[in-house]
């Protein structure tokens, strides 16, 4: 991991721990999860929001004011709104995507859940998602939630990442393996 990325991750994890502890004490963990969903949507859908949190052109005051307005419009909890305001004041909004990820992981771990990143060539149907979730629940012994993405370059099959384990049954990887074997022979 590069040094700036590890610094960002460390900052995000500290904020995530603090937010989780505050939410747990106030019995607001479910509300914070709603905040995370809203923030993920904003990060994904809004280029302006991305620019706001990453651009050095905005002053602390401009970021703080924009975050205050956005938090009100998004209906964020007081805990999350205060955290974002503090991050703006400290010029730390650039770690927001990492904060969202770290906080999701912290909440999931506390609930005994784990997230599986699933990449498929085509979108999974509801039945396929349910079967995969059931299978992963049985193999991990924890409640698994799927984070599915589509990558058509896989051609077929799927890639599943659960924690540090990865299962790659994609046709692309099988073709790459076959190509390597053929290179070794010839």
From TrEMBL:
The keyword Cell membrane applies. The keyword Membrane applies. It is a peripheral membrane protein. It is found in: Cell membrane; Membrane. F(1)F(0) ATP synthase produces ATP from ADP in the presence of a proton or sodium gradient. F-type ATPases consist of two structural domains, F(1) containing the extramembraneous catalytic core and F(0) containing the membrane proton channel, linked together by a central stalk and a peripheral stalk. During catalysis, ATP synthesis in the catalytic domain of F(1) is coupled via a rotary mechanism of the central stalk subunits to proton translocation. Belongs to the ATPase delta chain family. This is ATP synthase subunit delta. It comes from Sulfitobacter dubius.
